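It would be a great kindness if you could assist me with a short task in structural biology. The matter concerns a single protein, recorded as an amino acid sequence and a row of backbone structure tokens. Kindly check, if you would, that the fold set down in the tokens agrees with what the sequence suggests. Thank you for your consideration; the sequence and its tokens are set out here:
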Amino acid sequence: MKLLLTTDAVGGVWQYSIELARSLKALSVEPILALLGPAPSDDQRRQASGLTLVETGLQLDWLAADRAEVTAAGQAISDLAAQYGVDLVQLNSPALAADTRFDMPVVAVSHSCITTWWTAVLRGEPDAGFGWRGRLHGLGLHAADIVVTPSAAFSEMTRQAYGLPRLPVTVHNGRAPLTLPEVARHDYALTVGRLWDKGKNLATLDRAAAALPIPLYAAGSTQGPNGDSIAFEHARALGNLSEDELGRWLAAHPVFVSAALYEPFGLAVLEAAQAGCPLVLSDIPTFRELWDGAATFVDPLDHAGFAAAIERIIGDDAARFELGRAARERAGRYTPEATARAMLDVYRGLLGESGEARAAA
């Protein structure tokens, strides 16, 4: 089976795509990664070693100036799929299917979208400058042969947002554990992600940091490619970390915290859980689905609640150990191999259906 898999180097889709591609290769699938948006970093290029990576130079749908740019990117991906003679295409940017005809089955994986983001973060409908992006995303979902989302909570959000005739298939993301060096335990809190994204709600954690007797560190970019940015008064920004650097920070078993208002899955939480870090998470449906019974939950806007939960865990060695153990045990469910097997079932189902349709014709 030959698969064209779109990706980008900006956020969690990169890690998802790389690990999915590697796991699919072990299952006799030949993946071709088609990169849209900014070029990958040197570290990302190393991660893609041994995989076929095509740097298209095409614009990402959520950074495109207008519909025409997205349409052009979709057509270019369709042409690329034909050039490589793939059996099917997985679009990690569903909007690419909105105006484009593909000659093979299309799997649309919705990792996030502007419509559901806007509803969860800004509590309303996207304004005119963004609404067209959401409409394109919806058209792509309707055009795809099947839609996949990384959590059941996000599946329901997506169905409601776009009026899909059936609920998207849920395939949880997976992640290979980071390499952890032997280091002493340290008392600090840590959050990781696209810090500039309002959906990550770093403003609440910055306020919580002011009330903590320990430092709260934030790893990730404070400046987004769309112009959004954030500056901290109390949290301590670490910048972007390589996998080895992040592994060293997680190896000290800090309290990992996320106050996200919007999180379709949350790979950073999974990385921390695999490292045995106790989790303090915002009480949103996705985190409840994935981590209920293995984390402490706080109202996402309650900065005092986050500070109290972090301080309580730091001051209780037994609770800190037990929460870390529970997080690591739960993380065992979410592996790249499990994701690849579930996606392979989706692919096989589609190829079987398309074969039956050709036979009937």
